[in-house]
Amino acid sequence: MNPDRKIAYESLFYFVDDPYHPGQAIPRDSFIHSIAPEHDPANIEVTLFGVASDFCNRFAMEGWLARGAKVTIIEDLTKGIHKETASVLRECSYQRYIPDRLTAITSQELLRELDIL
Question: Could you tell me where the beta strands, DSSP code E, fall in 14-113?
């Protein structure tokens, strides 16, 4: 397997705090437990943004939701390949999470919520 592809694949299962030392990776679920109060993933709130709302963000969102986390997607800082965030979230499988555990907001809304604007 191509070494770069191997690192990319393994990064799905590990949290790398320092990309210059990827060998010091923490197993993903151990990292999640380390940041969750009393090891309760339901106390985790995750904000997603970036490329591939219909791939990368979708799979990250599904993983966090499966662990009980609350997920917010910054929709104007996310770009889809085939579908934008709003289209992804309209899919039946995500409707049960909206609005309690899954929301999409704009960067302006987030900044106002954080009292930065």
Answer: 14-15, 26-27, 45-51, 70-79, 102-105
